[in-house]
């Protein structure tokens, strides 16, 4: 296959899987984001990169959003929301974070392939995204892509769709968001 044929196959996989996301789960996450005082996001590896992009878009909307582990991240309180992006829901660094957020009275949301996972059981709400786990064994999704790429792509597309829904709810457009875009670059 040439590069464009791979791209077509990747888009086909995304089209097949993105339609399987439960709208009520997505709406529940949008509602929780809208009601939260502060939003915290966490993830590891490539999933962590996707969830960081989500935090940046929320900040550009004027939502108080932070990436866990950054030096400027404040403390979490009971009216706050932690959103964890993890395909497996078993990432060793994220499990204690979910437990800690829970003990602080915050809400934990999980975006994952595996809502029945350790973090999924801790979470107050989960959004199940279709995708293949890194080992791909028994996932039920055919993919030509390596490891967890299908989940990570679905995570980015899903988070962008959540941003669009939030923008619609707040009557915001890209111009308003661009005014909050970084300008020291």
TrEMBL record:
Span of domain SIS: 29-172
Pfam families assigned to the protein according to its UniProt record, in alphabetical order: SIS
Keyword Oxidoreductase (UniProt): no
GO terms classed as biological process: carbohydrate derivative metabolic process
PROSITE patterns for the chain: SIS
Domain of life: Bacteria
Keywords: Isomerase
Entry GO MF terms: carbohydrate derivative binding; isomerase activity
Keyword set includes Metal-binding: no
Cross-referenced NCBIfam families: RuMP_HxlB
Sequence similarity: Belongs to the SIS family. PHI subfamily.
Record protein name field: 6-phospho-3-hexuloisomerase
């Amino acid at each position: 296959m040439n590069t464009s044929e791979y791209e077509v196959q990747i888009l086909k996989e995304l089209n097949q899987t993105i339609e399987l996301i439960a709208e009520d789960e997505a709406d529940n996450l949008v509602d929780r984001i809208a009601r939260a005082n502060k939003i915290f996001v966490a993830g590891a590896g490539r999933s962590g990169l996707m969830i960081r992009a989500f935090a940046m878009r929320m900040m550009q909307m004027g939502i108080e959003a932070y990436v866990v582990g950054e030096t400027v991240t404040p403390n979490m309180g009971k009216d706050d929301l932690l959103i964890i992006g993890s395909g497996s829901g078993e990432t060793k660094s994220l499990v204690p974070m979910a437990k800690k957020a829970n003990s602080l009275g915050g809400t934990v949301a999980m975006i994952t392939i595996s809502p029945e996972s350790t973090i999924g059981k801790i979470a107050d709400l989960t959004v199940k995204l279709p995708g293949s786990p890194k080992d791909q064994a028994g996932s039920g999704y055919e993919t030509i892509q390596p490891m967890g790429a299908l989940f990570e792509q679905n995570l980015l597309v899903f988070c962008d769709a959540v941003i669009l829904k939030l923008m619609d709810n707040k009557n915001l457009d890209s111009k308003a968001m661009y005014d909050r875009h970084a300008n020291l670059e």
